[in-house]
Amino acid sequence: MKKTKRTSSSLKLRSEVHSNNYLKSSSQKKGTPLPAIDILKLEMKRFHPEESSQFQIRFTNNSSTLASKSYKSGRVSLRVQKIFKEAPPEILALLVSFLFLPKNTNDSRAAKKALLDFVANCPRSPRLRTKSRPPQDPEGAYYHLEMLRDELLSIHFPEMKDPPTIGWTSKIQKRVMGKWLETPKGETNWIFINRLLDRLDVPELYVRYVVYHELLHEVFPTYREGGRWIRHSPEFREKERQFPQLEIARKWEIEHLNAVYLAATKKN
Ligand SMILES: [Zn+2]
């Protein structure tokens, strides 16, 4: 769950910017994007215009190295984590830029950051996240997340069999108040709640609302439609509206959350 912002220009996610540059020619079905492998080859051509037929790209399951480049017997060869198979064109372009640009330039750093953001936000990358530890710490100074979760479960989700493990983030975060993470099949999913909210000046109603929102992700899975991940489907939003005092919680968020963040991070 992200903090509500009143300006929208800078909020646009990179992955939502759809580029038309890679649509197939008019003889093919209009609007069908090229496969990732073709986009990668086109991007590589910008760095190696002379070797367009010599590119080799392999998708891997490697979860520690997302992408690497090597030169083998005159060929440029990329190994790319298969999560990028479903990446939008601009992410693939950044991936190639990152691999081919000199390291430690601003452009290379910016590309790296955008790529890591993409991976972190990709709902089908459970195995890439397992480096992070499951939520450890449900008991905060003011709010006990397991107790809040269980209360919400009994009221709103009595049928949920294997509820997510819930805990506070280790550090205060600025933008993301709650995060639901899908773990590999058969394992309990995770919910992290921003430690920022474990404060006396954050009303319980708001914490409950954030936990409720994240529990909804357990019920309404993310899916892909038209090249985009849909996290908050109409059914999700419909059920969200059933949260008691939803408007009060959202109003509090808009009016007070920034001040709480500033108070929590103020250096004495
Ligand atoms: Zn959400």
Compounds present?
zinc ion
CATH topology of the largest domain: Zincin-like
Q: What is the helix/strand order?
A: HEEEHHHHEEEHEEHH
Oligomer: single chain
Provide tags for this entry.
single chain; 268 residues; alpha/beta; Zincin-like; 2 domains; three-stranded mixed β-sheet; 8 helices; 37% helix; 14% strand; elongated; binds zinc ion
Describe this structure in words.
This protein is of the alpha/beta class and 268 residues long. Helices cover 37% and strands 14% of the residues. The chain folds into two domains: 14-122, Zincin-like (2-Layer Sandwich), CATH 3.30.2010; 145-265, Zincin-like. The chain has helices spanning 36-47, 89-100, 106-121, 126-129, 145-156, 204-219, 234-240, 246-265; strands at residues 55-60, 67-72, 75-81, 165-168, 178-181, 190-193, 223-225, 228-230. Strands 1-3-2 form a three-stranded mixed sheet, with helices on one face. Strands 4-6-5 form a three-stranded mixed sheet, with helices on one face. A hairpin with a 2-residue loop joins β2 and β3. α5 (145-156) packs across α6. Residues 5-29 have low confidence and may be disordered.
Break the fold down into its secondary structure elements and pairings.
Elements: H1 36-47, E1 55-60, E2 67-72, E3 75-81, H2 89-100, H3 106-121, H4 126-129, H5 145-156, E4 165-168, E5 178-181, E6 190-193, H6 204-219, E7 223-225, E8 228-230, H7 234-240, H8 246-265
Parallel strand pairs: 1-3, 4-6
Antiparallel strand pairs: 2-3, 5-6, 7-8
The structure holds zinc ion.
Zinc ion binds at residues 1, 213, 217, 231-232.
